[in-house]
């Protein structure tokens, strides 16, 4: 899923960075493509709307329009907003429970990385001194 999203975003950004000067129309078209890529990756539409709104607000300003490399400035803004949206790493701590066992349910589309994420999470918990147990429970 992330590979497809990365490819689509790279295609949008390569079109932007190849231009010398960007217009508001160029930015709108690029954000439309970003919006579609995120929605196709099953990102919540409210998150996508908020994200693209923040990127557009920053992109329309002098920061980009007067930049020597406006396309690269847009890529920088998108990167910063993605980090803000996804978290910078500090906010990703799991809340501990007072009464074990703690249950974490992973749900998502087939092939979206649930098993891989569960295994990585179990390893992280194991390194943190916990005793994780993975249980497969497919819905019928």
Describe the structure.
It is built from six helices and no strands. It is mostly helical and 140 residues long. The protein folds into two domains: 2-90, Up-down Bundle (Four Helix Bundle (Hemerythrin (Met), subunit A)); 94-127, no CATH class. α1 (2-17) runs antiparallel to α2, α1 (2-17) packs antiparallel against α5 and α2 (24-40) runs antiparallel to α3 (45-60). The longest helix is centred in the first third of the chain and has 17 residues, at 24-40. The chain is elongated, with a radius of gyration of 19 Å. The model has no long low-confidence stretch (mean pLDDT 81).
SSE topology sketch:
Blueprint: H1 2-17, H2 24-40, H3 45-60, H4 62-65, H5 70-86, H6 114-127
For the structure shown, list the relevant keywords.
140 residues, mainly alpha, elongated
* Helical fraction: 55-70%
pLDDT < 50 runs, ≥5 residues: none
CATH topology of the largest domain: Four Helix Bundle (Hemerythrin (Met), subunit A)
Strand content: under 5%
Gyration radius over CA:
19 Å
Secondary-structure element sequence?
Answer: HHHHHH
CA-to-CA gap between the ends?
24 Å
CATH class of the largest domain: Mainly Alpha
Morphology call: elongated
Number of helices: 6
Q: Name the average pLDDT.
A: 81
Number of domains: 2
Assign the CATH architecture of the largest domain. Answer: Up-down Bundle
Major sheet description: none
